[in-house]
Structures are given as C-alpha cells and as structure tokens.
Specification:
Residues 49-126 form the Caspase family p20 domain. By secondary structure, the protein is of the alpha/beta class. It contains nine helices and 28 strands. The protein has two domains: 11-26 and 362-595, S-adenosyl-L-methionine-dependent methyltransferases, CATH 2.20.130; 38-322, Rossmann fold (3-Layer(aba) Sandwich). The chain has helices at 66-79, 95-108, 160-172, 259-271, 282-296, 331-337, 450-469, 555-564, 570-580, and strands at residues 11-13, 38-40, 47-53, 84-89, 114-120, 123-127, 138-143, 157-159, 176-182, 233-237, 247-249, 256-258, 279-281, 304-307, 317-322, 392-396, 414-416, 425-427, 434-436, 439-442, 474-477, 483-484, 488-494, 500-507, 512-516, 529-536, 541-550, 586-595. The chain has a six-stranded mixed β-sheet, sandwiched between helices. Strands 17-16-18-19-20 form a five-stranded mixed β-sheet, with helices on one face. Mean pLDDT is 82; it is low at 1-10, 15-35 and 324-388.
C-alpha cells in the first residue's frame, strides 16, 4: 500500500493495486459492409417482437421519451433484419389492443423462437393479489394511456403477473424471451436533486387507492408466481423496486430518453458483442447495457437483470450477429478504423508494442487553474477543432439572457434559453453556481469562467457518446451520492487483464488530471480488475472519470495526456482521443459529484 499522495488536490490519488501479467490477445474488428449486420436466433428459428411506448397519459403526468424509445428499438430490430415487429405507442397501447397483439404473437410463436418484449412508460406498485408472490408484498404494475383511479380507468393497466402469464405461454411453445421494462415502480433516490434544477422526468407515479377495481387479470393454473419460476426468460429492468428511473439526455439526440431502451437498442446493433465473436451471451448483454445506462445517467440509474435459474448467463447466447462478409483484420481493418501500426499475421498474437521512455512520475497534484496555451497543444493532434452539431443550451436561473453576451467558448457555440426550455446548464446569478440535470457542476463561477464550463460540457457529451459505442466496464464506489471533502471513492475497472489502461479525470472547470499510469504504475494490467482509491478535495462540483483500455500500450495518447495534465484542456482531450484512439479501444466515462 502506498502512502497517500495528492491530498491537497482536486482528486487525490491514494493507491492502485494490479496483479500478474498474461499474454496480449488480439481483438478482431468487424468489417463494415453494405447489407450491414443482422440479428439472428442462435437456435435458427424466428425473432419476433412486441414493443410498447407511452408518453401521452390522459390522467397522470405525461412522459417525454417513451415513444422515442419504442421507435428506436423498432428501428434497430428492423434494420437488423427482424420482420415480425409490432409497435404500440400512446393511444394504440390500450389494454384491449395490447392483449390482442400479445395473444396473436403467442399464436405465431414456434419452437425455438426468440421473443423480444419491451415496454417504456409509467410504472407503480400495488398490493400483491397472491400472498407470498412478492418479497415485499407489492406487485409491479404498468400503466396504460387511459389509466385513472375511476372504475372505468382502473382497467387501463397491466399487472406484472399478467406479463409473466404470457411469457409462460411463449415458453410452453418452446420460445426464449427477453423482456425489457423501461419503467420504475419505487420512489427512492440516493443522490438528491438540487432544487434550482429544471424539473426532472421520472417513469413512476405515486401509489394510489382504487375504491372500485374493474380489472379482471388474465391468468391460468400454469402461471409462474414470480420471474424466478420461468425457465427461458431474461429480464432487464430500468431500476430496482425501490428507485426512480429518470428520463435522461442522450448525446447527439434532442429531448429526453430512457437510458435502458437506448442501451438495449445499441446492444442489439452489435455493441454488446464484447469479444467480437458474433455471439452475444446473456452476460455480455447484461454487462454492456448495465454500463451504458450507468454512464448515461451519471450513476443515478443501476439496472436490474434477472435470468431464469436454468439459464447460464456466461454461456447462453441471447442472440447472434451475422454479416454478408467475412471478418477481417490487419492493415485494412486498422486503417478503416484509424488505428496505425503493423498487424500480426492471422492467428498469431501481435508483437509487444515498442515502449517509449517512461513518463516522469507525477508529483503531488494541486488544483489546476492554468489554461492550456495554444503553443502547448500537441502539434500531432487532429487539426479540426471540437465542434459538436448542437450548441450548449445555457440559461440563467432568473430567466435573463443578457449575462451571456460575452460568453464565447472555444469548442462549441452557446444558445441562451429559459430555465424551462430544457437547458444543458443553468447558471445562478446570485451564488454563481452552475447546475446540470439536478447536480451542481461547478461552484462560484462568474460570467468570465462560464466558457470553460461550457466547453467542458461539450467534451463530456462527446465522451459519453464515445463510451456508449464500446464501453469499458467501470464502477465508482461506494454509491452515487454527492461526495464530500476528504471522503474516498474507489474507481473499479473490470475485465482489463493484459490491457493497457489510461485513467484521467475532467473536473468541473475542464481541468485534466492524469490518474493512471503515474510513476511506477504498470502500463498493462496484470489482473482482471484494477482498483484505484481517490480522495475528494476542492474545487468541488462535477468530476468525470474516464478510462481508456486497449490490448496494446497507447504510447501517443499517454504522452498527450501527460502534456495536458493539470491544464484546462477538455476540448483538446477529445481531439486527442479522436486522433489516437486504437480500433480495439474500450472507454468508460463516469460522472460523480463533490461538495464541501
């Protein structure tokens, strides 16, 4: 154990533990081709889907992204070659229509089919109808557009046990089921929302009392008592039974969305195939979706995954991916993806990379305030500047826009909006705090300092987009609550054996802080996990811990990061990643928040 260092810095590095080395492997990238990637059933039968999305509730609070979630999933399935896809949105998703379509899907189902069910909308809980069927005595319920607490409106809901009834019907016909529930049924949160923030949208309504309940549940004697009584079904739920599921911002997409639905759509398009073997196991599906949701929600959302007791997630294949062309490797694939250097002959591991002179050990790190001068930028970085298509939407808490006339960031444009117009950032002209999506990004920032916070926001948006494409598994412990001065958080990377690891932080004002490798740290991970404790210090606000891993040491990128260390250079980091990122790179980008 090393002695603590960096105790007076923004995030103080405490220690890192890393085990013994193994041989470096080779990740083979898919060749992109006309006709694209297709999803297929590992048993050779059909893939069928029923996808539901509801925003337009008539008697309870409307949602903003559930229909877009359904459309996204349907588009992904169809683009991946799935023909039997039924979509029900808003008024189409009344109880009679839903029961009719799911019953028809049961009738079409054949032995070994793969059935995909998805619902995005409001959820809640009611007392269980069958005593002992739920661990807390409460049953999950999915609300439909016409639901209200009147006798007629009580019919417009679907019980969790009813979905289990139909899933059992699919299983009895020999099918395997993947069920995605992008709703929430509980009402708790770990990290509080700053009261100055714009109103957040959650997929949950308060519990209610039905004086007259006209719902007549669909059931029979074969129905399972719980999800664990099913045999061939995998469940992915947005949150646990006690937590709210927020609608989140997705980089590059207007409006709000459900992080789970978005992650599932990308997983089906191929991002969950971590080892690029054309087979997505349940473990790969669960791990990929869990990490993407965790990243997109800034730790506010931890999905729940359940597989049937008879299933073996590490080996059971959820679905397969096929192309019209063979896989390729070597110079052609590497050139297409921007990776340089010689490739090993097919079937052989690559030669160990040349190791550049070791960077000097980083001394005790201090809170950096120096901005990166133009002359200090690496000359070999990508020549184009970071210029995302969408501007950063900036609002003042009092609604005035004249504060921002002189705000001219380097890397992105600014659009002045009202606090009610879905801003990316809200600036408090009294305290000078900057708030984003319920969290304080930076404390005490005057107008002259806003451009750096805006540039940092654009950079984090791009980092999240990169991390969604090929995520590296990473968690921050102990939880997502706001961390206080002097507390220790632990960064935990998994599945990094024999991979090169770069770890850095982007502070609320855009300051870069290299966390790994530092000093005598091994460039290649020697065990499956890497744990790095960090101590929290000022300045307080948003932290974005970023991990980049690859099967070969990223010498150029490592050098650039050391040049940017302790400088306000969030935009330069993005350009450097775009230029030097190897084809097999995995990225994690996790936000957490600190306060005095």
């Amino acid at each position: 154990m090393r002695m603590p260092r960096g105790l007076d810095c923004k995030i103080g590095r405490l220690c890192a533990t890393i085990g013994l080395a193994a041989l470096i492997g080779l990740t083979i990238p898919y060749a992109h081709a006309a006709g694209g990637l297709s999803i297929s059933n590992p048993d050779g039968a059909a893939v069928r889907a029923l996808v539901i999305g509801i925003d337009d509730y008539q008697h309870v609070r409307k949602l903003k992204g559930a229909v877009a979630d359904a459309t996204d999933i349907v588009t992904s399935l169809k683009s991946m070659g799935v023909d039997d896809v039924v979509e029900l949105t808003n008024a189409q998703a009344d109880r009679a229509s839903l029961l009719r379509e799911i019953s028809a899907l049961v009738e079409r189902t054949r032995n070994n089919d793969l059935i995909f069910l998805s619902i995005a909308g409001h959820g809640t809980q009611e007392p269980e109808r069958f005593k002992g069927s739920e661990p807390d005595g409460m049953e999950n319920v999915f609300l439909l557009p016409g639901f209200e607490t009147t006798p007629t409106g009580s019919v417009e809901r679907i019980l969790g046990s009813e979905f289990n009834h139909f899933i059992r019907q699919f299983e009895l016909r020999g099918a395997t089921v993947i069920f995605v529930a992008d709703t929430c049924h509980g009402g708790g949160m770990v990290r509080d929302i700053d009261p100055r923030a714009a109103e957040m949208s959650f997929r949950q309504v308060p519990r209610y009392t039905l004086l007259v309940d006209e719902l007549k549940p669909v059931s029979d004697s074969n129905d399972p008592k719980s999800e664990l009584d099913l045999d061939h079904t995998a469940f992915l739920a947005a949150v646990d039974r006690y937590t709210k599921a927020p609608e989140v911002r997705i980089p590059g997409i207007d409006g709000l969305r459900g992080a789970l639905s978005y992650a599932v759509a990308r997983a089906m398009e191929g991002s969950a195939d971590i080892d690029h073997d054309g087979k997505v196991t349940l473990k790969e599906l669960f791990s990929n979706v869990r990490q993407v949701v965790y990243q997109l929600s800034d730790q506010r959302q931890n999905i729940v995954t359940i597989s049937s007791p008879a299933q073996m997630p590490e080996t059971d294949v959820a679905f397969e991916l096929t192309r019209g062309v063979v896989l390729i490797q070597g110079p052609a694939a590497r050139a297409a993806s921007g990776q340089t250097g010689a490739a090993a002959p097919e079937g052989q591991a690559p030669a160990p990379p040349a190791v550049a002179a070791k960077a000097p050990s980083v001394p005790t790190l201090a809170a950096a305030t120096k901005e990166l001068p133009t002359s200090a930028a690496p000359t070999s970085a990508a020549p184009t500047s970071l210029r995302p298509a969408a501007p950063i939407r900036l609002a003042a808490l009092d609604g005035k826009t004249n504060y921002f006339a002189s705000v001219t960031p380097k890397d992105v444009t600014v659009q002045a909006v009202q606090p009610t117009d879905n801003p990316d950032l809200i600036w408090d002209p009294v305290s000078h705090d900057v708030i984003a999506w319920g969290d304080v990004v930076a404390y005490g920032v005057d107008v002259a300092g806003l451009p750096m916070v805006v540039d940092r926001t654009a950079a984090i948006r791009e980092l999240k987009r990169m991390a969604t494409r090929s995520p590296q598994m990473m968690r921050i412990w102990p939880d997502d609550r706001q961390q206080r001065a002097g507390q220790t958080v632990e960064v935990d990377l998994s599945d990094v054996s024999s991979r090169a690891v770069l770890l850095f932080n982007v502070s609320g004002d855009g300051t870069i802080q290299v966390l790994y490798p530092v000093g005598s740290d091994a460039a290649l991970a020697r065990s499956a996990s890497l744990r790095l404790p960090l101590r929290v210090g000022e300045p307080f606000g948003a932290e974005q811990v970023v991990a980049v891993t690859s099967q070969q040491r990223m010498v150029d990128l490592e050098t650039v990061l050391m040049q940017l260390n302790r400088r306000r250079a969030s935009g330069q980091v993005i350009k450097s990643l775009q230029h030097y990122l190897p084809a097999d790179a995995r990225i994690a980008s996790i936000g957490f928040f600190s306060a005095p």
